[in-house]
Design brief:
The chain has 5 helices and no strands. The relative contact order is 0.11. The radius of gyration is 19 Å and the shape is globular. Helix 2 runs antiparallel to helix 3, helix 3 runs parallel beside helix 5 and helix 4 (102-133) packs antiparallel against helix 5. The mean pLDDT is 81. The chain is mainly alpha-helical and 171 residues long. It has helices at 3-24, 32-63, 70-91, 102-133, 143-170. The chain starts with a helix and ends with a helix. Keywords: Membrane, Transmembrane, Transmembrane helix. The chain crosses the membrane at residues 6-23, 44-63, 75-94, 106-125, 145-164.
Length: 171
């Protein structure tokens, strides 16, 4: 068994144990308003997903070419729908439950989104530079870059919401 596969298996087992310990003690209880806002966010996220898929299909049909591999295109479109859902939930106060400590959740979210997003963004940029330096006509297929941008954008949304709340409390 190669070392990288063994390291991956160990990492996944440790991650599962830590995640189970953290999330089993959390009781995320949302009130009716939060559940209603989440349902609205689901609706807008889904419609954005459908619209982005249609626009991508029309662009490919009329230009007779695609900008990326089917996997990269699908993943990017899904990420667009996810960021719409996430943005609505955060700004309508439906992302964190009221039974949780808001400051702790915001700090944890900012830290995790920054860490994982930064690692993915760095990996994606390195992969993209390697493809560009080879002058390869390969279509865009950089999932790490897309997920890094998604997570750092989510980080910026949480930070923006926290700043807005802080400014509203000062007034």
């Amino acid at each position: 068994m190669p070392f990288s596969l063994l390291a991956l298996i160990i990492f996944l087992i440790v991650y599962a144990i830590i995640a189970y310990g953290v999330y089993s003690s959390r009781k995320m209880q949302y009130d009716e308003r939060q559940k209603y806002m989440q349902s609205i966010a689901y609706k807008y996220g889904f419609f954005t997903l459908i619209l982005a898929t249609a626009v991508n299909g029309f662009i490919e049909y009329y230009t007779k070419s695609s900008w990326g591999t089917p996997l990269a295109e699908s993943f990017t479109i899904i990420c667009i729908g996810l960021i719409v859902f996430f943005t609505i939930c955060v700004f309508k106060d439906a992302y964190f439950s009221y039974s949780e400590t808001p400051v702790k959740n915001i700090v944890q979210s900012i830290f995790l989104f920054s860490l994982i997003g930064g690692i993915n963004l760095y990996t994606g940029i390195m992969n993209q530079q390697e493809i560009i330096s080879q002058h390869s006509p390969v279509k865009f297929n950089n999932i790490n870059l897309i997920s890094g941008i998604l997570l750092l954008l989510a980080d910026a949304i949480v930070i923006t919401r926290a700043i807005m709340e802080h400014l509203q409390k000062e007034e």
